[in-house]
Amino acid sequence: MDFLRRVFEPMWRKKVPKKPDAVRIGxxxxxxxxxxxxxxxxxxxxxxxxxAVAARxxxxxxxxxxxxxxxxxxxxxxS
Length: 79
What we know:
79 residues; alpha+beta
């Protein structure tokens, strides 16, 4: 039941402060499922921080990062 509660919890729940030693992860791909499957659950956890994104185009990666509030800037784009 804990899984269902986390999945269907209201999306407007406040972000929790991150621990200094939180695991920082990056997203490979800017798919539509990523916010629901990874970013929103990570905002409710204090030991996980989503900080970067990789996408097929630089513009898509920057748009996705801006929309979801990633802190780190895009440093490089690989084809």
